[in-house]
């Protein structure tokens, strides 16, 4: 097969010498592009995800790239912020003496594209056009390919995920002429989950959520043969776009975001999906559909074209000319069961020759005259787009090929393409994950039988420790009661310490103990996805249903009962490790176990390494709503040891009731990985570490920022909920007390949750008040523009029930007078932000709003500016944070 491919790619022996030279020239051009973009240093030691997330001087500036070496970092920065303008590669230069108007660049590109294909000299000119110079923008697809080829697997995955949120077409096959292979990006898409509604009707039963890697959907490929005066990408964008608003999923030359000819990205295959919203008058198609786009001519990229013919339900071929060479290429597809459609232009190419070859191809490709479309650029584009949609719809209604991305990767392997997921470290990690998850038939039973230290033993121990802690602050605590609590706690801890880690936990510990950092990260990602696939119960409901999941106000409340079913996750395995460490440490402190007999003392070190690699770790246990203090302080001690001199820390927390967008806000602001989405993930508070670049740490005043997401801890309980309210207020006090900066996320209401007001009152008395920012997020109405981000508004009305009740909890007497004394009740001192709606358009085909991205960047800049100017509480080192955890 490979011999046939080479024959079709290179033609007869007359051009053999030229073709043998081609890879050498391409290799040189690839290196020149890397040098131009400043990426040549990342070919051995790849650019990592942690490298791209560091806080630096540039994190505080809304700067425009001035030289090509700025472009990769500008792209990553804007992509992290989900900025729809990320693909723009135009540069702002100090001097542009020879800048050419955009119109002339477009004319030059057309002259290159429409050379007579029979002219070998013209083909050489097209293939070896000059590289971009610092005065001209780099083609965005070249930038993307160069950056992906310079990134490790985890940064590639992050880039693809963020591109999906921006509704950009995603790279599926990545060309690499330097190393003479093409890579199918299966791992890069692993973990992407999309939601949609099936038709009809729209309701709870019609809502779907699934991984794009495992969903089997029909695919339609669009390719160019020789030259075409019609743009594939513009046609695809029109087909995918509902209504009159066109979204440019696929980059095309008329966007003027970098109009240079492609240099290294020919051979790139992109993929994008259409997902229905469940409304027949809006949906273009009634079910999910994938669209594939090959960059470059199929004659030069025969392997990619062969792949597309084997994974697609239909292939649309855009061309102006069908020559003898192209006829031979297509004739070789006579055994294919794929449907083929031709899109021709009547004004270019050789009409009679085209007709002659098409007549020959009709019996070979099993097509008829309805499979040949003529697009006249001056005709109504809308009617042509409707015709394409009608063809796709007809194919969908008939039995057709439906493949998942995993299925496509299997076809790619058989054709000889490299699949990124096939590396040894990735496969070893996957095997280890499967050894754990294959034993999980029912997640509740697995937690009971395999994660034995959690559940009732941990809940009872946590309750005893809370009571014991409250006694510490009693005026005259009875010694007998204190001794009884100590006895009960030791009994529970001895019971826990009598267990050994289960086989699943031991396998997990082996996975995170791997000496290979990459294998360790692969394992954690595989565990996240494997557990998500098998864990039950899993909520699969529309977002408006999830927004109603709130605790019941009033009446008796079980403090250990979750607000929603909590899916089994990586955090449960880490909790189990934490409980083994807690039980053992408690017995050592009480003198019941010699320190030399400890078995789990190394567990905090393993967890601290995970924190340093960017994994969010649980700070407050979501099942018991308590902090395992020995585990957390042990982890922080290990972190302090590993960071050595770079241990100055700022703690930034985000509080708010569930589903107010606070996790999405943090992820967009700093590129973090806190759980978000429709299924309302873990309930506990999680922390993630961000590194400050060494060159900026002195100016910012810290070496790392520890970000805490309150998750589902603050459920919005009213004071009438009694114990539930008091618990939420205590947890809010704890998180704010640890923080230098606190972001309060509010949605659709100007009232601060009562538990957070209560925390403000407590902290006001201690004198420890973090720098605070109130963020009002527009969750639903994406069409109504809100106030500017820094507009002032009255945060609190005259005394209301929540205000009075919160003050009464502190026995302040006149509740409102106590609250009015707080700084945030002064309109002149309020730090209030109005964040526009997240989506531009209607999900699931909506992209992230540019206004949302820009407002989040402004908030980030303000937070960093406040940290740098010392407006937050005094920055602390990790040792001081440990002491603060113990006190609070």
UniProtKB/TrEMBL annotation:
<keyword id="KW-0342">GTP-binding</keyword>
<dbReference type="GO" id="GO:0005634">
    <property type="term" value="C:nucleus"/>
</dbReference>
<dbReference type="GO" id="GO:0005525">
    <property type="term" value="F:GTP binding"/>
</dbReference>
<feature type="region of interest" description="Disordered">
    <location>
        <begin position="1"/>
        <end position="20"/>
    </location>
</feature>
<comment type="similarity">
    <text>Belongs to the TRAFAC class dynamin-like GTPase superfamily. Very large inducible GTPase (VLIG) family.</text>
</comment>
<keyword id="KW-0539">Nucleus</keyword>
<dbReference type="InterPro" id="IPR057365">
    <property type="entry name" value="URGCP"/>
</dbReference>
<dbReference type="GO" id="GO:0005737">
    <property type="term" value="C:cytoplasm"/>
</dbReference>
<keyword id="KW-0547">Nucleotide-binding</keyword>
<keyword id="KW-0597">Phosphoprotein</keyword>
<protein>
    <recommendedName>
        <fullName>Up-regulator of cell proliferation</fullName>
    </recommendedName>
</protein>
<keyword id="KW-0131">Cell cycle</keyword>
<feature type="compositionally biased region" description="Basic and acidic residues">
    <location>
        <begin position="1"/>
        <end position="10"/>
    </location>
</feature>
<feature type="domain" description="VLIG-type G">
    <location>
        <begin position="646"/>
        <end position="886"/>
    </location>
</feature>
<keyword id="KW-0963">Cytoplasm</keyword>
<dbReference type="InterPro" id="IPR027417">
    <property type="entry name" value="P-loop_NTPase"/>
</dbReference>
<dbReference type="InterPro" id="IPR030383">
    <property type="entry name" value="G_VLIG_dom"/>
</dbReference>
<dbReference type="Pfam" id="PF25496">
    <property type="entry name" value="URGCP"/>
</dbReference>
<dbReference type="Pfam" id="PF25683">
    <property type="entry name" value="URGCP_GTPase"/>
</dbReference>
